[in-house]
Specification:
Elements: H1 3-23, H2 25-28, H3 30-50, H4 53-56, H5 65-91, H6 105-129, H7 131-142, H8 149-172, H9 175-179, H10 194-242
Helix pairs in contact: 1-3, 1-6, 5-6, 6-10, 8-10
Length: 243
């Protein structure tokens, strides 16, 4: 495998793990939260440098349903990340304290809640839309060449179980309250188990990966069927003209 794809994959994995870590703010303390947040800022910049070709292709080619959906999710991920970074810098008391921002704390707090919770959801959807590629990379690394139906069925069943637990966590951890800013403060349990917290959030991530992955499969299948019908009509038309 070429070095650039490996580096891109490593940066993306590091960003995902860092975002997952940051959701557990109350488990690690404010200082470490800020330093990891600063790290994700650098990873975010590296990610966009490594994927610079994406901007060049924005106005090239046709936009089908899948491409439009992917672009919308990518744009919203960008907005949520920028909201987190701006608000995190404004509220910083350790890493960026030297900047000495005056005021704007109330707005920054709202943006940070929205950016964090929507960012986590959107990043999970983003992963789900690219899950086919990720699975392909893992199969290649593991030397798995064939696509066994039994393995696909097992993966689907495991996905359903994880998504079900993730849905329960989504409600139990009151995600809608923070996604729609019904509260300007996040209520945290500082005594909860780190392991259980991250099991919950991995399941939440799994829920949205599952939704995006299988939605993408459905969209691609419909596109293939639509293209197949169009090709059939075109061949039939040419046949009639030739006759």
């Amino acid at each position: 495998m070429k070095p650039k794809p490996v580096i891109k994959f490593a940066v993306d994995v590091a960003m995902t793990l860092a975002l997952l870590f940051l959701m557990g703010y109350h488990l690690w303390g404010e200082a470490l939260h800020e330093w990891v947040g600063a790290g994700i800022l650098l990873l975010f910049i590296a990610h966009h440098i490594l994927n610079g070709h994406w901007y060049k292709t924005l106005f090239k080619g046709k936009y089908n349903a899948m491409r439009i959906l992917t672009l919308c999710i990518d744009f919203l991920v960008l907005v949520s990340m920028l909201a987190q970074m701006y608000s995190g810098i404004v509220m910083s008391r350790y890493v960026f304290d030297f900047l000495s921002f005056r005021g704007g704390m109330s707005l920054a707090r709202r943006l940070h809640i929205l950016g964090a919770y929507w960012g986590f959801l959107l990043m999970s959807l983003h992963l789900g839309l690219h899950w086919k590629m990720i699975l392909k990379m893992f199969r290649k690394a593991a030397g798995i060449k064939s696509k066994a139906k039994s393995r696909n069925m097992l993966a689907f069943i495991v996905g359903v179980v994880i998504a079900g637990y993730g849905a329960w966590t989504f409600i139990g951890r009151d995600f809608p309250t923070y996604l729609f800013l019904k509260s300007e403060f996040v209520f945290l349990d500082y005594s909860e188990s780190k392991i259980l917290f991250y099991i919950d959030y991995l399941a939440l991530m799994g829920l949205f990966i599952f939704i995006a992955h299988y939605s993408a499969k459905l969209i691609r299948r419909k596109q293939r069927n639509h293209n197949g019908i169009l090709n059939f009509k075109e061949r039939y038309k040419n046949f009639r003209i030739g006759a």
